[in-house]
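Pilot study result, target chain (243 residues):
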Amino acid sequence: MLNIYICEDNDNERDYLSQLIKNIILIEDYDLNFACATADPYELLNIISTDNNTGLYFLDIDLGKDIDGLLLAQKIRQYDQRGFIVFVTTHSEMSRLTFQYKVEAMDYIIKDEPKKINDHIHQCIIVAYQRYCSPSNNYQNIYRLTSGEKEFCINFDEIYYFETSENIHKVILHAQNQILEFQAKLKEIEPELDKRFCRCHRSFIINTDKISDINLKERTITLTNDDIVLASKTGIKKLLPSC
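Predicted structure:
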């Protein structure tokens, strides 16, 4: 999932940006996570230091701290090399510095007219999401699906397992913070996944990075979200060749 972050020291402007972006997410019906709106650059860095997701960052340049938005962008790049960085600021004269800092900013928005800002930010969100969900993107390993009328892009790292649904020709994906049912068959999904995924049973494909315990006697697998799935003899041998 693509996360959105704001770092802006002016309370009114931060609140305005937050509400604007939340409205855009609702209008576009995108699978986006509004992760953080803060005046403290160190709070933002602390959050992304433990998050493997790609981010879309809206940064003011003058943050009233010992680091400005340009230096913050440099530090963001240490954690999120593929993230989308957008500067939203009154300092038009500093736009050239984004090249000197080598932060590969997606855009530089000047706070002049609210209507222009709204349109500009809306366009940034659309473009960032389209690039993130594009089949040709190399940001992360992503599984793409359509549930209802909405498209979802789920990082492989967030997926616990897939299981066949009671509804014919449908599969249920269990991921961090969401469970999605969609039209598919497990045999169609397998080729789209990488080597961390294993078909442990005719009804399950699991992310082996999420295994917490394997019960050989019961032929069950406990995952890190505490869900328990079935495993066949063949599935056990795939996971534990010596068994």
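One observation from the pilot: The chain has two domains: 2-133, 143-239. A full batch analysis is planned for the follow-on phase.
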